[in-house]
């Protein structure tokens, strides 16, 4: 791999950030700066921490730390989406698919963390 852009977890994380961002802007105005902002920040944190961790890949422990932050942010993003689904059911109409994709990403990040722990050479 030549770049973080080659990582599936990065590509999927960035795609889900763009989707989440668009949904957050459909919330009522008063929620755009509360729940919407939380969703935008947590979903942005997923690929951002992958990028930062990759930049520190020379240091295995740092790489794992940032991948763990990414994984936690993915879980947080699902939580915010679940709140939006409950409070504003008309905002995310295909929420089962979105939650499924987030859970798929979460599993991929978790598996990538395990791979780095067991196989990464610095």
Automatic annotation (TrEMBL):
<dbReference type="Pfam" id="PF05635">
    <property type="entry name" value="23S_rRNA_IVP"/>
</dbReference>
<dbReference type="InterPro" id="IPR012657">
    <property type="entry name" value="23S_rRNA-intervening_sequence"/>
</dbReference>
<protein>
    <submittedName>
        <fullName>Four helix bundle protein</fullName>
    </submittedName>
</protein>
<dbReference type="InterPro" id="IPR036583">
    <property type="entry name" value="23S_rRNA_IVS_sf"/>
</dbReference>
């Amino acid at each position: 791999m030549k770049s973080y852009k080659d990582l599936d977890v990065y590509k999927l994380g960035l795609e889900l950030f763009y989707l989440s961002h668009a949904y957050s802007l459909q919330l009522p105005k008063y929620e755009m700066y509360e729940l919407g902002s939380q969703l935008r920040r947590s979903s942005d944190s997923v690929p951002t921490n992958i990028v930062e961790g990759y930049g520190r890949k020379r240091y295995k422990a740092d790489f794992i730390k940032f991948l763990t932050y990414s994984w936690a942010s993915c879980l947080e993003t699902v939580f915010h989406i679940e709140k939006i689904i409950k409070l504003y059911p008309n905002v995310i109409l295909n929420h089962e698919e979105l939650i499924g994709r987030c859970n798929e990403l979460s599993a991929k990040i978790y598996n990538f963390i395990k791979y780095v722990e067991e196989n990464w050479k610095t």
